[in-house]
Amino acid sequence: MTLRAFIKERSYLNWYSKNIDQASESSIIESVLNYGTFDDFKKLIKILGIKKVSEIFFSQIRRKRNNYRPEIKNYFSLYFKKNA
User: Fold this and answer.
1) In the chain, what are the domain boundaries?
2) Are 72 and 31 in contact (CB under 8 A)?
3) What is the pLDDT of residues 33-60, one digit of tens each?
4) Of 4, 1, 42, 47, nearest to 23 (Cα)?
5) How many angstroms separate the first and last alpha carbons of the chain?
6) Tens-place pLDDT, residues 18-37
């Protein structure tokens, strides 16, 4: 399964975007981590790999402003530090 097919099947993750076809990897990762289920997360890992997802996540949270809720940021920081 490709990343595009994955996100098209889960339109509820990008409810705020009109054009899902042009969503970047980082925006897809952000929506899966913020709004997806753990099964969505596991499928995302199968598609992109845990190393790539963790690298993009950590680059996103290093920015001064990001869109992760504090509890999501904390959970996935701990998860990726342990598993990636």
Assistant:
1) 3-83
2) no
3) 998 999 999 999 999 999 999 999 999 9
4) 4
5) 22
6) 666 677 888 889 989 998 99
